[in-house]
Amino acid sequence: MRFIPTRIHGMVDYLMGLLLIASPWIFNFNRGGAETWIPVILGAGLILISLFTDYELSVSRKISMPTHLWMDVLAGAFLAVSPWLFDFDEYVYLPHLILGIAEIGAGLFTKKVPDTHPHHTANNADARTTTGTATTSRTNATIVDNSTNRPVDRPAMGSNADTRVPSERDRADRERIDRDRDRLR
Fold first, then answer.
1. Residue 158 contacts by C-beta under 8 Å, 6 or more apart in sequence?
2. pTM value surpassing 0.85
């Protein structure tokens, strides 16, 4: 059911934020009341939240993707019902309703885990753990295997060991890594 990649969602977030901020002037409903300020404030909030969400287009990964998506759904629902909630529906309602529904859809249909995580550099503050020759990186609440860019199970609290049971794919990958390492010697 969730088919929108987080990278695309991030692009849409920034564009939607700008569209919401500019919508009172684009669609000519800038009377200075709730009909004007609700989309402007929600657009600015969307851009701010996007800057701190755990996905590819953020500045700092402080807000988890599921939390961001729930905020999208709640903000979209608020935007969609705001013309009737603040009694300006007889003046304008369609931009609020359409953009609110679009925001709800983005929240409901976007993947909860980024497809890729940025490559780690010496300046990156993410904690790193190493198990054998496989490297994983910890970003917020997700541990990602750098060789496959896929989330892996979190080790037990206080443990430095990888406590998950290896799958057939893990064993095959490990054998491939060992074979490649032996061949390079």
1. none
2. no
Query: Between 95 and 151, whose confidence is greater?
Result: 95
Contacts 24+ apart (CB under 8 A), 13-17: 13/46, 13/47, 13/49, 13/50, 13/53, 13/57, 13/106, 14/47, 14/50, 14/57, 16/43, 16/46, 16/99, 16/102, 16/103, 16/106, 17/43, 17/44, 17/46, 17/47, 17/50
Q: Which residues of 98-114 are buried (b: 16+ CB within 10 A; e: fewer)?
A: ebbebbbebbeebbebb
pLDDT in tens, 73-94: 999 999 999 999 999 999 999 9
pLDDT score, position 139: 46
The pLDDT tens digits for 100-127 are 999 999 999 999 998 765 543 334 444 4
Cα angle: 91, vertex 101, 42; to 5 degrees: 70
CA distance 95 to 28: 10
